[in-house]
Amino acid sequence: METIIGHGEVVKSLTSSLAAGKVGHAYLWLGPAGVGKKTLAKAFAKQLLCEAGGKARDCRCSSCCRFESGNHPDFIIVEPEGNTLKIDQIRQVQHQAYLSPVMGKRKIYFFPEAEKLTDVASNSFLKLLEEAPPGIVFMFVAVRADSILPTIRSRCQVYHLFPVPVSEIEERLLALGYSPAEARKRSVASQGLPGLALKEVTEGDSGSHQWRIADLIRLDLISLFKVSEELEKKERKDILLILRQWETELRGDLIRLETPDSVTRTTGALERVAELLVMCEYNVNVRLMLDDFFTTLKRLYTS
Ligand SMILES: [Zn+2]
C-alpha cells in the first residue's frame, strides 16, 4: 500500500490490523469519486491474499502475480448488471461464499459500486455478512454513506476518505518525473483527488476535447442523447472530470462574452453544470442526468 497517495492514517490502520492478524470480515470505504477508494481497497485485498503475508513491497508470490494480472480466483468483483446489483447476483455470492478459496486461506468479494445494491439485495445477505464463513472478506466502496443501508454499514469497518492535500499529490507527481511546473498544475487541477491527477498523468488531455460544450451545442438532440449513452459507460470519476472541464470551458466563455444574451445563456449552462457536479456525488442515473442537461443546453443555445 506504499503506492497509495495520501490517506496515511487509513493505510496505517489497515496495515497494523493485518500485522496483528486482526482482519475484519467486512469493510466499507466512503469518499468522493477519484479520491482513491478502489485503489486502496484493491491494495489491501492484494496484501490480504499475499502468500507471504503482504509484507514485501514488490512481492512476486503467485498470489500477488495473479492479482496484478487481474485474474486472481479469490478476488471476486461483484459489479452491477445494468444500473443495479440484483438479488440473483447476491444469491450467487451467497452460494459461492461457502466454497473454499482456490489459492490460499482467504476469499474476497469486492463491490466497487456498493450504492447500486438494491434494498432487497442488501437485506438478502445480511445473514451472510453477520456469519461470514472463515476467510471470507467483503469490501464495499461507495461515494456516500447514506446510499448504503444502515444494516450493512453497521456490520462493516467504515473508512472515510477525504481529498488529499495538494502538496502530497504534487510530491508524488514530482516522484513520477514531472517537472515542478507540471506537477504543480496537475495537482492543483485535481482538487485533492488523486484519481483525477493520475488520470491526467496516464492519459494526458487527449480525448477530452471531443466533449467540449462548443462542439456539443452543434449536435442535434438525438446525437446528444447518444453522447449520454456513451458517457454513461464511463467511470464516475471520468464523468466528474468531464463536468469539471465543462465548468472551466464555460467560465472561460463568460470572460470573453459581451452580449447580455450570451452571458445569460452561459450562466444558465454553468449553473446546470454546478448542479450536475453535486448530483454526481449521489447515486444518480447518469444517462437521465445528462439527457436532461443536454435538453437544457439545447434550449439555452437555440433560443
Ligand atoms: Zn505476495
Structure notes:
- The protein starts with 7 loop residues before the first helix and ends with a helix.
- Helix 4 links the parallel strand 2 (75-77) and strand 3.
- With 303 residues, the protein is α/β, with parallel strands linked by helices.
- It has helices spanning 8-19, 37-49, 62-68, 87-96, 119-124, 126-130, 150-153, 166-175, 180-189, 194-203, 213-216, 221-232, 236-256, 260-279, 286-302; strands at residues 26-30, 75-77, 107-111, 136-142, 157-160.
- A 5-stranded parallel beta sheet has the order 2-3-4-1-5, covered by helices on one side.
- Helix 8 crosses helix 9 (180-189), helix 12 (221-232) runs antiparallel to helix 15 (286-302) and helix 13 runs antiparallel to helix 14 (260-279).
- It is 53% helix and 8% strand.
- It has 15 helices and 5 strands.
- The chain folds into 2 domains: 8-160, 3-Layer(aba) Sandwich (Rossmann fold); 205-302.
- Mean pLDDT is 88; it is low at 201-208.
Question: What would the keywords be for this entry?
Answer:
2 domains; globular; binds zinc ion; alpha/beta; single chain; 303 residues; 53% helix; 5-stranded parallel beta sheet; Rossmann fold
